[in-house]
Design a protein that fits this description.
The protein is built from 13 helices and 14 strands. By secondary structure, it is an alpha/beta fold. The protein has one domain: 3-Layer(aba) Sandwich (Rossmann fold), CATH 3.40.50.720. The strands form four sheets. Strands 3-2-1-4-5-8-12 form a seven-stranded parallel β-sheet, sandwiched between helices. The protein has a three-stranded mixed β-sheet with strand order 9-11-13. The longest helix has 25 residues, at 110-134. It binds nicotinamide-adenine-dinucleotide. Residues 7, 9-13, 31-35, 74-76, 97-99, 101, 119, 123, 143, 145, 216, 218-219, 236, 245 line the site of nicotinamide-adenine-dinucleotide. Nicotinamide-adenine-dinucleotide (NAD) binds at residues 7, 9-13, 31-35, 74-76, 97-99, 101, 119, 123, 143, 145, 216, 218-219, 236, 245. This is NAD-dependent epimerase/dehydratase family protein. Belongs to the NAD(P)-dependent epimerase/dehydratase family. Residues 3-292 form the NAD-dependent epimerase/dehydratase domain.
């Protein structure tokens, strides 16, 4: 298949592009490189030394003999460029990773809130409008997040996107209706992902666009079979307080003997997935597009759930690290239960990588190898959800 990967230079997008290419698909990466500029803005760098995108794709050609094309385009603000790209590439599938994806970054200031809303909502809407304008039968695969469901402790396995509700009509007759599972976004970033869902519902109904929305858990790990083939293909690894996701942050902290920073009690339960499973799920979603009709296919892309405090203990036990409980910068429940259905991806053949695998140790070793690149002052999260949280942290 011909596949345009929007955001293909990012943490999930780069290894997914390589995996799709290695699986025999013709891949074009479309990226504005805004994520690399966010590193400059924040004064941080990936733990791993990532090469410029043109070097990455040239190395991949040498290593694999396969060509990945590369288009520099801001899909949120260059609509004509997006339409031209679709005309030139003529993709069968568009995989959409191209959004600002950090919740703390989205809450840093009014400017960051507005940037995240502007970038993410325009990016998604532009993609949908451009697909319709192209007149082509394109399957859109979008990376959403488990976070849209919110973290209420409901004694229910979270369904894959939809909930059937029963309600009495005006005559007292009970009616059933399937609705999108009600969202409860916990940041401006999650708010944009919640709004993406409505845009998908509309374009699927109105224009028959075939859409798969993958509600992904927190991704951990870095390297994949493809990125390990040459050091210049190495994947991005964010460890800082804005972009570092919780388990990857713990692994780097463990590698350099820095106390593991647990926000609040650590009683928050979250859904996780290894990067190797994430890219495999993308491939499975891409290759099963024929199943998708004008009802958005939602799949929960996660493999296990854990309490943050348990993860910290697991990592601390491996290396003898300390744990440092800090004021939670986020406005969220101290504790929650979470149980999730992921039948659809398992049904497509996903064979999950478990958290206690050797991969955890391999990631700590990677952290040790690149420890000289770590700026410890960038590890704490300095983004507060509201003034009360900031005051508590400053006390
Ligand atoms: P990332 O920031 O590493 O990558 C995103 C890429 O998109 C970057 O290369 C960036 O330059 C590009 N981009 C952003 N806006 C763009 C625009 N307007 N035009 C063109 N390119 C643009 O993020 P990631 O971790 O790879 O996440 C990718 C997707 O997966 C996101 O949508 C995110 O919400 C979702 N996701 C990620 C995680 C995770 O743990 N990393 C978890 C759940 C969901």
């Amino acid at each position: 298949m011909k596949i345009a990967v929007l955001g293909g230079d990012g943490f999930c997008g780069w290894p997914s592009s390589l995996h799709l290419s290695a699986s025999g698909h013709d891949v074009t990466i479309v990226d504005s490189l805004v994520r690399r500029r966010a590193d400059d803005e924040l004064g941080v760098q990936s733990l791993t030394p990532i090469e410029p995108l043109d070097v990455r794709v040239a190395v991949w050609k040498d290593v694999s003999g396969r060509i990945i094309d590369n288009v520099d385009l801001d899909i949120a603000h260059d609509y004509d460029g997006l339409v031209s790209m679709l005309d030139d590439v003529r993709p069968d599938v568009v995989v959409h990773f191209a959004e600002q994806r950090s919740a703390p970054y989205s809450m840093k200031s009014p400017a960051h809130k507005r940037y995240t809303a502007d970038n993410n909502i325009n990016a998604t809407h532009n993609v949908l409008a451009a697909i319709v304008q192209s007149g082509r039968d394109v399957h859109l695969v979008h990376l959403g997040t488990m976070g849209v469901y919110g973290y209420e402790s409901v004694p229910l396995d979270l369904p894959e996107g939809y909930l059937t509700v029963s309600y009495p009509d005006n005559n007292g007759v009970m009616r059933d209706r399937e609705i999108l599972y009600p969202t409860r976004p916990g940041s401006v970033y999650h708010l944009t992902k919640s709004m993406d869902q409505l845009m998908f519902q509309f374009y699927a109904q109105n224009d028959g666009v075939r859409i798969t929305d993958l509600h992904q858990g927190i991704v951990w790990g870095t390297q994949t079979a493809e990125t390990e083939q040459d050091v210049r293909l190495i994947n991005r690894f964010d460890y800082d307080g804005d972009y570092g996701t919780v388990l990857n942050r713990f692994l780097v902290q463990a590698a350099i003997g820095y106390p593991l920073t647990v926000h609040g009690s650590g009683g928050q339960t979250r859904a996780f997935i290894n990067i190797n499973d994430s890219i495999e799920c993308i491939r499975l979603a891409v290759e099963s597009g024929d199943e998708v009709g004008n009802r958005v296919r939602v799949m929960n892309q996660m493999t296990e759930t854990h309490k943050v405090a348990d993860l910290a203990d697991l990592v601390a036990d491996k290396v003898g690290a300390q744990i440092d409980h800090q004021v939670n910068p986020r406005a969220e429940a101290d504790e929650n239960a979470l149980s999730v259905r992921n039948d659809r991806l398992l049904g497509l053949g996903l064979d999950p990588v478990r958290l206690d695998s050797d991969l955890l140790t391999a990631e700590i070793e990677l952290g040790k190898h690149y420890a000289h690149r770590i700026d410890m002052s960038r590890i704490p999260c300095r983004s507060y959800w509201n003034r009360d949280r900031q005051s508590a942290a400053e006390e």
